[in-house]
Design brief:
Shape of chain A: elongated
Strand order of the largest sheet of chain A: 2-1-5-3-4
Radius of gyration of chain B: 18 Å
CATH class of chain B: Mainly Alpha
Number of helices of chain A: 9
Number of strands of chain B: 0
Oligomer: heterodimer
Number of strands of chain A: 7
Largest sheet of chain A: 5 strands, mixed
Largest sheet of chain B: none
């Protein structure tokens, strides 16, 4: 099938100071991924096209971008699912550096803010490992699936309106430790998120839940964090 | 590492929005059903309001309606405004202005409710 592909282009270093769209007609298979189309353009048409990609199998989370207006991983979206006219743009809400590459630093700064690591200085009972029941593990299973692609945070209208809001991804990663029975810094994280720029910046728009390529129930996780704060 | 979760203005406001939102469902719907459907807006005049507010039950009902709807709405407006107002000082100024507005309207509404539309009926 013939696909009409529009790609966002911006490269101030090469004199493309204003965002524009390049268009291509590409012969594609319905089962091709959008990433395959970008790879085709970069390999055979214009080598200057820039985007992040690493594993190309929906695990590393580096190729999150807007495809026909919706945040997704280019390596997980098939041509047959988005149609013959495809528009590819960078994520919203983060500064665009070049083409589809955005500055992820504000995103990771918010991520670091919530202490996304296990805090437990006690020595395990058997001296080797901290045991956990299947039920205790299941409590935070959903939020362990996050791959930090930023699709949720950059789909969030609260984040677009307020750079200081930590965003859904940071709260999801706080949730992963807050509800982990082995962790000891849950209240510290809840205090960090107990703010307008923390969990209460969420207005339950549910964009994050639709955008998550890992199908994490993001809005529910945020609601659980809010409930833990006021409990 | 253990510490308690502090109460903040935002956490209290969040709780308030939930509780007042739940209460608004019966309060607002019963109000709309009576005033707009059963009685009808064209049948509402000063005498109707005076009779209604001469009853302590309706006074209390309207007081709760005023207290919950208006505070709920003002806090919602504050949240929306903060999407557009980013400076800490500007946010504080807006919060104070909204609080004064809320207080004034609530006081005027409460005085009207307590004194009634026709005080001689009380």
């Amino acid at each position: 099938m013939l696909v009409y592909l529009r790609i966002f282009r911006y490269n101030p270093e090469a004199g493309r100071n204003k965002p524009t769209f390049d268009t291509y007609n590409i012969q594609a298979d319905p089962d091709d991924r959008v990433l395959d189309l970008l790879e085709h353009v970069k390999s055979y048409v214009d080598g200057s096209l820039s985007y992040r990609r690493s594993c190309a199998h929906g695990v590393c989370g580096s190729d999150a971008m807007r495809i026909n207006g919706q945040n997704a991983l280019a390596c997980k979206v098939l041509v047959k699912d988005v149609g013959r006219e495809i528009t590819v743009e960078p994520l919203l809400g983060l500064p665009v550096l070049k083409d589809m590459i955005v500055d992820m630093e504000p995103f990771f700064a918010s991520y670091r803010k919530v202490m996304p690591f296990m805090v437990n200085d006690d020595i395990p009972e058997d001296g080797r490992e901290r045991l956990q029941s299947p039920e205790e593990r299941a409590r935070f299973d959903d939020t362990t699936k996050c791959i930090l692609c930023a699709a949720c945070t950059t789909s969030c209208p609260s984040f677009w309106a307020d750079d200081e809001y930590v965003g859904p991804a940071a709260i999801v990663n706080a949730h992963r430790f807050i509800f982990d029975s082995r962790d000891h810094a849950g209240d510290e994280r809840l205090n960090i998120l107990n703010d307008r720029e923390g969990a209460f910046g969420c207005r339950t728009a549910f964009n994050c839940t639709s955008a998550c390529p890992r199908e994490i129930h993001v809005t529910r996780a945020i609601a659980e964090v809010k409930q833990a704060i006021v409990a | 590492m253990t510490q308690k979760v502090q109460k903040t203005y935002e956490s209290v406001a969040w709780k308030w929005m939930r509780y007042s939102g739940i209460l608004l469902i019966p309060l607002a719907w019963i109000h709309v059903l009576i005033q707009d459907v059963i009685v009808g807006v064209h049948a509402i005049d000063i005498d109707y309001v005076a009779l209604r507010w001469a009853n302590i039950g309706w006074q209390a009902y309207d007081f709760f309606l005023l207290a919950f709807t208006f505070a709920h709405g003002m806090n919602g407006l504050r949240q929306v405004l903060f999407d557009f107002v980013h400076g800490e000082r500007a946010r504080k100024a807006w919060s104070v202005a909204l609080f004064i507005f809320w207080l004034l309207v609530s006081i005027i509404g409460t005085i009207a409710l307590v004194k009634g539309a026709r005080p001689e009926l009380a």
